[in-house]
């Protein structure tokens, strides 16, 4: 089971990496843009906080430039996973990069056929966007379950990482489908840690302890 925080925010990453439960950080152009910092500088600073994988999406639109951009990003830190947008150009870039031994992820995956072609192109991971599928009225969890089942029946090595997660229960539901990994926003991770009953119980323990030891 691999868990990632879906963030490019240094403060959030610095707070959660010491938990020792995350395999790294996933980012995308929107998350990077939110930080209003130079892409390379931001990734290098994130790499100082993260022992695990750092997922970075290319912004080029043609396969050749995607490959060149990927090789440049790959040089910024160790354990980079290059995110490629699903499509003809992304598939071409994935085939080239996988032959070069570059770890890649096919992102913006919304169907089993897309996932199968991405796996055939040699990507290490595919990212079905659970939350965004749900937003359209379809069932995101069914999508990832189907991809997991097809990959298992085809004995595909490519891993499935559930993305676009909106809450703690979606993390659990996704893991129940057999996905290899889940990436979640900072607030979702905090919601998984915290529970009001835990806080109430701890407060009572400390009150009883302090009263007895006054
Ligand atoms: C992975 O990093 C995806 O880009 C991300 O989970 C998308 O999440 P969103 O649908 O909340 O933008």
Question: Explain this structure to me?
Answer:
Its main location: cytoplasm. Pfam families: TAL_FSA (PF00923). It is found in: Cytoplasm. InterPro entries: Aldolase_TIM, TAL/FSA, Transaldolase_3B/F6P_aldolase, Transaldolase_AS, TSA/FSA_arc/bac. Keywords: Cytoplasm, Schiff base. The chain has about 210 residues and is an alpha/beta fold. Strands 1-2-3-4-5-6-7-8 form an 8-stranded parallel beta barrel, surrounded by 7 helices. Helix 4 crosses helix 5. The chain has one domain (about 1-210): Aldolase class I (TIM Barrel, Alpha-Beta Barrel). It has 11 helices and 8 strands.
Features:
214 residues, alpha/beta, TIM Barrel, eight-stranded parallel beta barrel, 8 strands, binds erythose-4-phosphate, Fructose-6-phosphate aldolase, Transaldolase_3B/F6P_aldolase
């Amino acid at each position: 089971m691999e868990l990632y925080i879906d963030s490019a925010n240094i403060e959030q990453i610095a707070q959660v990496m010491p938990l020792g439960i995350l395999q790294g950080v996933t980012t995308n152009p929107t998350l990077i843009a939110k930080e209003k910092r130079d892409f390379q500088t931001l990734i290098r600073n994130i790499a100082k906080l993260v022992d695990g994988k750092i997922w970075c999406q290319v912004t080029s639109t043609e396969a050749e430039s995607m490959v060149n951009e990927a090789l440049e990003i790959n040089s910024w830190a160790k354990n980079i996973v290059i995110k490629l947008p699903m499509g003809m150009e992304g598939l071409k870039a994935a085939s080239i990069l996988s032959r070069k031994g570059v770890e890649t992820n096919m992102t913006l995956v919304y169907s089993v056929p897309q996932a199968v072609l991405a796996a055939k192109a040699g990507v290490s991971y595919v990212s079905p966007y659970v939350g965004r599928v749900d937003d359209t009225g379809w069932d995101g969890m069914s999508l990832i379950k189907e991809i997991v089942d097809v990959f298992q029946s085809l004995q595909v090595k490519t891993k499935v990482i559930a993305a676009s997660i909106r809450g703690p229960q979606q993390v659990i539901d996704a893991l129940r489908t057999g996905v290899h990994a889940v990436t979640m926003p900072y607030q979702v991770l905090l919601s998984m840690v915290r529970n009001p009953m835990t806080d109430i119980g701890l407060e009572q323990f400390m009150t009883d302890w302090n009263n007895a030891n006054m």
